[in-house]
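Entry: DUF4139 domain-containing protein
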Amino acid sequence: MKLRWLFSAALTGGVCLGLAWSAEPPTVISTADGGQTLSLTVYNVGRALVRDSRPVVLPSGVVKLEYRDIAAKVMPQTVAFMADDTVVLEQNYEYDLLSPKTLLTKFLGKEVTLVREEPRLDGPGTVRQEIRATLLSVENGTVWRVGDRIVANPAYRELVFDSVPPYLREKPTLVWLLQSQKAGPRTVQATYLTEGITWRADYVLSLDQQGEKGALTGWVTLSNNSGASYPEAKLQLVAGEVHVVREERPREAVMAEKMMAKAPGMAEEALGEYHLYTLERPTTILDRQDKQVSLLQASGVKAVKHFVVAGFPYYFWSRQDLHREPVRVKLEMANTAANGLGLPLPAGTVRVYQRDSRGVEQFMGEDRIEHTPKDETVKLEIGTAFDVVAERVQTDFRSFDKVTESAFEVRLRNHKEEPITVEVEESIGGDWEMLSHSHPYQKRSAFVVVFSVPVPAHGQSALAYRVRVRH
C-alpha cells in the first residue's frame, strides 16, 4: 500500500484536502484506432491545434488514463482535457522514448545478457554464446562486470534485456490521473498545440498567348512533420500572421460567382483579424507527408503587364558612367469580383505560365505574394524583358554647397512586334526639384517619381530630365 495525497475540488466549489490509502490505480489505455475523431486547425507559423476525441470506458474512482498516438512534437503546456463526470488530478507528458541508448541507461547496475558469436573449433560456422553481465557505465562506451572481471567495451552481437523498464515508452504519451465520478463509457477530448505542421498557398496563373487573360488555380500545400498521422480529420486552415511567443532554447456578385469557383468543399470566412478556410470533407494527413488540397479555381482573370526600369538614389550623388539597366517584367491582377477573383488570397508563390503559338504552356516566372485581401491588387515580378533594352547616361553633373544637379537620358529600344510603354521609376533622395523633363511624370511618394515612356514597335525613345537635389 502507498500513501497518496489527493487534492481535489469539491463539487460545491470549495477545496477539500483528503488523505487516502490506495493501491496503484488501474490504468486505461487509449489508442488512435479506438474510434478516434480528429479535427485539425493548421496555422502558417508552423503550428496546429489538434482536437482528439476518443471513446473510453472508465471505472469509478481514481484511474490513470494513458493517451497514446499523439503528436511527437506536442507542446505539453498547451494540453487541455475534457470529459464528463471526470476531474483531473494530475497531467503528465511522458516522452522518455524506447531506444538502445535509453535501455542501456535504465539498466545501469542491472544484469543484461550479452550475445556473442565465436568461430567453431570443429568446423565452419559460429557458436552462439550468452553471457550474463552487469552494466556499470555508459559514458564514452560501456563498462561491464563479467563474473570477477571489469570489462570495457566488450564485443557482442546483440544485447538481450529481461524487460522494458517502467515509464519507457515507444511513443510520446499523455497520462492523466483522473477522479472518475462514475463507471461507464464516455467521450474524452484532448486539445493541444503541436509544432511540425504548417501550410502554404501555391498558385498557378495560366495566361493566353497574348499574356493578357487567363485562369488562376490555388492549392494548399500542407506539410506534416509532427510525428503523428491524422486519419479522416476535419481540416481547417488559418491565414494571417498569428503572433506567437518564441521560447529561448539551447461573398460576391452573381457574375463573380460564375467566374470564380472556390475549391470543392473549401469554405472561407473571417476569423477575427484572420481568415479561416475549412475543407468540408474529412481528409487523412500522414506523418512525413506533403498533401495538396485545392483552394480556388478562377477563370477570365485579366493581367496587366508592366515594363519597369528602376533607378537608385546614389545616381544623384556623384558622376555616373553609361550603363545598361534591366527592364523588369511585372504583372498586376485586381483581386475583385469583376476580375473573376474577389477572395482573400493567402500568402504564397504564384507561378506564371503562358501559351505559345502552338497552344503549349511555357513557364514564364514566379513570385511570392503576401496575404492579399479582396479588392486589393496582386503584384508579381516574373523576370526581365529580353527584347527591351534600357541604357542610362548622365549628360551633366554639378555639385556645390551640398547641392547636386544631375541631367540624365534614359534610352529605350523596343525590339518587339508591338508597341509598349516603359515605366522609368526613379528614387531620388533628399530635397529634390525637377528642373526639366521630356515626358510627364507621376510623384508616387516623397522620393519616387515615375515617367511613362511610350516606345514604338521596333523603335526607340529617350527620356531626358534634369533634377536638383539638396542633400
